[in-house]
Amino acid sequence: MDHQRPCTLVRPLVTKVDPGSWGSKFSHLRTRIEGNCQAVLTGMDIQDDALSSFRGLAFESDAFGAWYGGRLQVSNRDGATGLRQIEGKEQTSEKLTIPELGEVEAIRSVSVADGQKSSEMKTRSIVRIRFAELRSLTEVIEIAAGLGRELINGIPKAV
After folding, report:
1. Rounded Cα–Cα distance for residues 85 and 59 (Å)
2. pTM score of the predicted model
3. In whole angstroms, what is the distance from residue 158 CA to residue 127 CA?
4. E-strand spans in the chain?
5. CA 105, 90, 101 angle in degrees (round to 5)?
6. Is the separation of the CB atoms in 7 and 43 below 8 Å?
7. What span, in angstroms and rounded, lies between the C-alpha atoms of 78 and 28?
8. Rounded CA gap, 26 and 41, in Å?
9. How far apart are CA 155 and CA 44, in angstroms?
10. Residues with pLDDT less than 70, the chain
């Protein structure tokens, strides 16, 4: 978290407060707070969670990926060397419009994480919603939580 930019903690739960230290490295007292929160909105200082200010939302879900995704990588054995090679398929996306919600897009893409001696390739599934009208933080949380519950329960709805 960048302490120089505003942010909003969504439903925070503070587990520890350390009054901090004062010394030659710090010109002022710094308080350290530990805990968990449902989400962090960086670059946004939301004072009123009922104010309609969100155009959309996007999230990645392993449960949605298991239902929708499948794998976008294919492994083949090289005939000359006998070594296995991995190849990624093209990104795919599907869009649909839900009248009172807005435009929903489901995206499947290959992601590569490079390590020192090897790389990891995996399929990522992302849901992106562009609302028909601006929504409040409260509404966005309700929509995201509702989608999360449906995906975790294994009963994907029309979204």
Report:
1. 30
2. 0.69
3. 12
4. 7-10, 13-18, 32-36, 39-42, 52-60, 73-77, 84-88, 92-98, 102-114, 119-136
5. 0
6. yes
7. 62
8. 27
9. 33
10. 1-2, 21-28, 69, 148-159
